[in-house]
Amino acid sequence: MSHDGTAGRTLAATMPAEPAMSDLESRLRAVRLLCTDVDGVLTDGTLIYGPGPHTKNFHVRDGAAIKWLQAAGIPVVFISGLESPATDRRAADLGIEDCITGRLDKLPALQAVCAKHGLGFDQVAHLGDDLHDLPLLRRVGLACCPADATGEVQAASHLVLSAAGGRGFFFFFFWTDLPNSCPWLLRGSTRSSATTPRASCAGPRR
Asked: What is the pLDDT of residue 81?
């Protein structure tokens, strides 16, 4: 038996190198703030009109994912082009401090939020579905969209999920992609593998 270390060096030389981190994984790891559109992302885009202000349907699982992100120290921001009491109320229910509505020009709004938190665009993930989201999607570190986003938005996104807007899209993003690259997000959450959804992302784009 050799004691000169030759065997150890030979073993080390034959061990496979760790795979290089993918571009998508690098972008996921950099996320420190999550910005999302509302209509068409957290809802299916439907507005319900009656005697009073319009109403919307929000998915309860998206709310759970937002609370888990907040518990992990990731601020969640709403930036919507539509002024909506329903959006304001949903943000209040979830404890979202930065809820910006009625802003079709969304980029200056996100710039202000980034300055507030001392973050760069490369540390932001944005979830959007329509043309007004394109300026943000083209600037942030991680651009994501639901399966039913416009073609232009899908083409501008790093990640297109298989879930449609308003169908738990935010929840699927939190479950299928962030944890794989950012396991520290699980700290403090009550996630259970028994309830992990089986849907997967449609895959990285651009």
From this structure: 94
